Amino acid sequence: MRTGTGISEVVQRIREYNSFFLVSHVDPDGDAMGSLLGLSLGLLSLGKEVWSYCHRPPRPPLSRLLGVELLKTQLPEDLRRYACVVLDCASKERLGLVRNRMGEFLFLINIDHHITNQGFGDLNWIEPTASSVGEMLVGLLRELGVEFHEGISENLYYAIQTDTGGFRFDNTTPKAMAEAFYLMEKGMRPWNLYRRTSKALRLGKLRLLCHGLDTLQYLDGGDVLFVALTKEIFQRIGVDPEEAEDLSDIYRSLEGVEVVVVAREVESGHFKFSMRSNGGVDLSKVAVAFGGGGHRSAAGFEYLGGYQDVLHRLSSLIREAKISFG
User: Fold this and answer.
1) SS3 24
2) pTM listed for this prediction
3) Which of 101, 106, 109, 156 lies 20 to 30 A from 204 at CA?
C-alpha cells in the first residue's frame, strides 16, 4: 500500500496499462455511478479496454445516464489481465464480490474523497477536500488529454451535482463550481440531464417516506431526527430496501432538523444506518465509531442487532460531534 499519491502518478499508471477494470461501491450513489461511467467513457476515448463493473443493474435515475449500457454485472474470467480502478469507495468491505479477489489484478488504483478511506490500493489518490470523485476525475481526464464529449461531461457533472446536493451542501467549493462550469463549456447541458433524471421518484419511495413518519423520533433535544425502516415494512409495502437509500436527504429538509439518521433493515437483524447533517456536525467521526465511514455531512455504518441497541450511544456521539465541531 502506498499513500499520498497525487494526480501525476495516477496519470502515469493509466498511460502504462491498456486494460482496466472499473468498480465502485455496492448500492452506488450519483457520484459513484457518474464517476464510473465518466471514467469509462474517458478511457475508451483513449483506446483503452474497459470492463465497467456494477454489482447489480442500476435503477432510475442512474439507469438514465449516458453510457449505462457499458455496465456489466458479471466479472471477467481472468482478472489478471486488468489494472483495477476503485472509485468513491472508502472501504474494501463495500466492494461486494470484488473484495475477495483484489489481489488478482495487475495493479490497483484507489481514487476517493472520503477522509475515512482505508488506503487499500497500490496507489491511493485521496482528496478529502474534493466535493466528489467526479470533481477529481475532471482534472484527471484533462491531464490525460481526453476530449470531453457529452457522455463524459454529463456523467462527471452529475457526480458533482449529486454529491453537493445540487450545489447546496457545504462541500460546494469554488473548485467544484469551476469544474462544473468547465463541463458546461464542453457542451454539457444541465437541463437535458435534469429532464432525464428528475422524474425518478417511485411510488415505493413515497410509501416508505410515509411509513417512516410512523417510526420517526427526535433525539438530542429535537434537532436529530431518527427513522427506522424494518424488513417487515419493506415486505408489507412490497419494495426493496434500496429504495430507502436517499430518504435521509428528504427528511433533512424538515424545519429545525440538523441531523437525520435513517436505519434500514436489509436482512433480518442487519441494519444500514445512513446519516446526513446540514453542516454543523462531523458525522464521519460518528460513523467511524461504529466501524463505518464517510464525510463530515454524509456518513454511514452497518450494525448487526436491533436498531434500538445503538440509539443511546448514537445520540451521545452525535452530541459530542456537535461540540467538537463547534
Assistant:
1) strand
2) 0.89
3) 156
